[in-house]
Amino acid sequence: MTVVDSASPDLLVSLAAALTGTLSRPGEPGYERSVPWNVAVPVDPVAVVAAATADDVAATVRAAREAGLRVAVQATGHGAVRIGPDTILVLTGDLDELTIDPDTRVARLGAGVLWQQVLDAVAPSGSAPLCGSSPNTGVTGFLTGGGIGPVARTYGVSSSRVRAFDLVTGDGTLRRVTPDSDADLFRGLCGGKSTLGIVTAVETELLPIAEFYAGALYYDGRHAAAVLEAWRVWSATLTEEHNTSLAFLQLPPLSGVPEPLAGKFVVAVRFASVAEPGIAADVLAPMRAAAPTVIDTVTTIPYAAVGSVHADPVDPMPTREATTMLRVFDEEAAATVLVMTGPASSSPQVIVELRLLGGALGRPGPHPDVYCHREAAYSLLCIGVLAPPVADAVIAHGEAVVEALAPWSTGGALPNFAASDDPAHLARVYDEDTRAWLGALAEQHDPAGIFRVGQVVRLG
Ligand SMILES: Cc1cc2nc3c(=O)[nH]c(=O)nc-3n(C[C@H](O)[C@H](O)[C@H](O)COP(=O)(O)OP(=O)(O)OC[C@H]3O[C@@H](n4cnc5c(N)ncnc54)[C@H](O)[C@@H]3O)c2cc1C
User: Fold this and answer.
1) H helices then E strands: how many in the chain?
2) With DSSP H G I counted as helix, E B as strand and the rest as coil, what are the percentages for the chain, rounded to 5?
3) CB of 367 closer than 8 Å to CB of 179
């Protein structure tokens, strides 16, 4: 595509006039809304469109086509990927529709809605969305990445609950995409991120869950070896109504971090079970006995408090992620994790997380998708903060951890973790057939390459 001079003011002026929402250029009020949650990522678009309607998104795509510009999309910037001055950035934060059909338990959600808003809206009816660990992430970015949440082993990839997407494709038209209306587009949207266009609304099933037995056991870092080994053995025995992850945490003393955890090496074992609480407590007992806990938050909690299970960071920060997926997690793999990231390792990572996969994640969902990791048993995610004094060490260390675990790795990476536009990363997210299929579909719906920006799969 020919990229015009990023000035192209006439076109942007006429686009601004056509919008219900606003268009801001660098230096203008509103442009600052493009700063992503992950402030380490350079997001410098030629203009920012705060879309107020789906038509705004469609108009932006048509204008960009005319100008030879690209279009990217952002809700919160939790999964931000670099954006340059050849791109208009659509912000979806004002697409805030949130309606619930209590009879069908289906929620219709604008692309800017965050998971906590849905959790709060549906809790009074005893319903729950299949959200992720952080309720502050955007519904649409999460679902277009498949989505692996705290009860994913029980209910599967979150996109398997989606009934419909409203989508603006590369020709600037808005269409409602369902498994019946457009089977291919629907499949590609379930895991393909923004490869096929910009979603303006999503309709997703809710689950009949009011409460569950969930929380985390926190242990002092000196018990890391014992807890990791106990968790390795125990996690492999869990049936699929039980979900768990283990994290090595080195949280700075910031507001929101409980005093016993701040500034120390801590191990967290997260647990989320939809079994009857007495049964769930019996299942968790071996981990409660594995070492003394500093804090034990696991109890019956409202599902709307699901964010407390992982207690992910809330405030924007400059983060860098490294990730891999494991076929098996044997004694040697655990020893490698301990050596590379344990309390004696000088690891610069703030969080090193192992999630147990399997269960419903190992089976195909009710409709085809582009989730390529059904054989993986665990995922590993390192999150570092690119701030002194560890900033320089974070990236190389994350890569070294991934490399050290190569003997146990599937070679894969989840679409939602370690967001990147690097083709080598995309080759880990999607297998070769899926990349070829998704790339060909993208060419069909976006021959001008409007959406060739960010974490998207394209041919050539
Ligand atoms: C603290 C934290 C916890 C997390 N926990 C989990 C978890 O438990 N499970 C999990 O699966 N992921 C998790 N993630 C990853 C998260 O799901 C992704 O970063 C997701 O992309 C966030 O969506 P967003 O809209 O908030 O982010 P954004 O940065 O706004 O969007 C990221 C990308 O999503 C796509 N996207 C966003 N909006 C649209 C749209 N309207 N149409 C088409 N594509 C769109 C685009 O490719 C965009 O670049 C976590 C991330 C963080 C930082």
Assistant:
1) 13, 17
2) 35, 25, 45
3) yes
Instruction: Note the pLDDT of residue 8.
Output: 66
Amino acid at 325: M
CA dihedral 376, 373, 341, 349 (to 10 degrees): -160
Q: How many Å separate Cα 214 from the centre of its chain?
A: 20
Which tokens belong to 265? 């090496």
Cβ neighbours for 182, distance < 8 A, ≥ 6 positions apart: 175
The phi, psi pair for 290, rounded to 5°, reads -70, -30
Rounded distance between C-alpha atoms, residue 376 and residue 384, angstroms: 24
Q: How many CB atoms lie within 10 A of CB 46?
A: 24
Nearest C-alpha to atom 29 of ligand 1 is from which residue? 77
Tokens representing 455 are 């974490």
Query: Maximum distance among all alpha carbons in the chain?
Result: 68
**Residue 244: enclosing H or E segment and its boundaries?**
strand 242-250
Measured from the CA of 150, which atom of ligand 1 is nearest?
Answer: 8
CA dihedral 139, 140, 144, 150 (to 10 degrees): 0
Question: Among the atoms of ligand 1, which is closest to the Cα of residue 193?
Answer: 47
Q: What whole-number distance in Å separates Cα of residue 166 and Cα of residue 154? A: 27
Q: Is the CB of 144 under 6 A from ligand 1?
A: yes
β-strand pairing of 174-177 with 162-168:
antiparallel
pLDDT tens-digit readout, 71-93: 999 999 999 999 999 999 999 99
| Triad 371, 375, 380: Cα angle to 5° | 80
User: By the 8 A CB rule, do 215 and 308 touch?
Assistant: yes
Distance from the CA of 30 to the center of ligand 1, in angstroms?
Answer: 22
Question: What Å distances lie between residue 122 and 6, 119, 162, CA to CA?
Answer: 44, 6, 16
Assign 320 to helix, strand or coil: strand
Domains of the chain: 9-91 (3.30.43.10), 98-208 (3.30.465.10), 211-408 (3.40.462.20)
Tokens of 178: 């369902």
- Ligand 1 centre distance from Cα of residue 6 (Å): 27
pLDDT at 102: 87
Positions in the chain whose pLDDT score sits under 50: 1-5, 7
The residue whose C-alpha atom lies closest to atom 11 belonging to ligand 1 is 147
